[in-house]
Amino acid sequence: MPSKPPYQNRIELLQGTLDLLVLQTLQWGAQHGYGIGNAIRANSRDLLQVETGSLYPALHRLEKQGFVKSEWRQTEANQRAKFYALTLSGKKHLLAERDRWSQMVIAMTSVLNAAGSKG
Fold it and tell me: For the domain that residue 66 is a member of, what is the CATH number?
């Protein structure tokens, strides 16, 4: 399977979309910010790259909303880093947002595939 060329232009994510990506990534376990960014990039086949200037404000916003919690721990490289994990509230929010996203994808697909009307 040929690899997709990376986007030349920077992809800017809407705030809610970034929050959903972060929560989705954290469902697989606690992670530090750098690891979250890498996971999003890897799982999107290098199409989505989240800049630290967007990622950390999103993490702080999600923590303030009670969807994630954080604690300082040592990384595998023996460096001190803040690790983020989903809370029970965050898991519920993730499920609701995934449902909402699925509905949006269906709606967008319907519009994009519509035969159109002549009027």
Answer: 1.10.10.10
